[in-house]
Amino acid sequence: MATRMGHRAVEELIAGGSNLIVCYRNSQITTVPIDEALEMTKGLDDYMYRVSQEITI
Fold first, then answer.
1. Sign of the CA dihedral running 41, 42, 46, 51
2. What is the pLDDT at residue 44?
3. DSSP-assigned states of every residue in 1-57
4. pLDDT digits (tens, 9 = 90+) for 12-37
5. pLDDT above 90 (res 43)
6. CA pair distance 50, 45, nearest whole angstrom
7. Cβ atoms within 10 Å, residue 22
8. Which GO terms describe its molecular function (predicted)?
9. Neighbours of 57 (CB within 10 A)
10. Which end of the chain lies in a sparser environment, N or C, as judged by fewer CB atoms within 10 Å?
């Protein structure tokens, strides 16, 4: 997924895009204006947090 997101970022730069972030939204890699992205909030998945703590050295 990181490669696909990086590819999309380069495509946006070549097309002259700016002030955007690349994100995974609604099962698609897309762009969002950075101002809109900064206003978004998302809760922390407690299960995934615990898993990350268990596997972190």
1. negative
2. 82
3. -HHHHHHHHHHHHHTT--SEEEEEETTEEEEEEHHHHHH------HHHHHHHHHH--
4. 999 999 999 999 988 999 999 999 99
5. no
6. 9
7. 20
8. 6-phosphofructokinase activity
9. 2
10. C
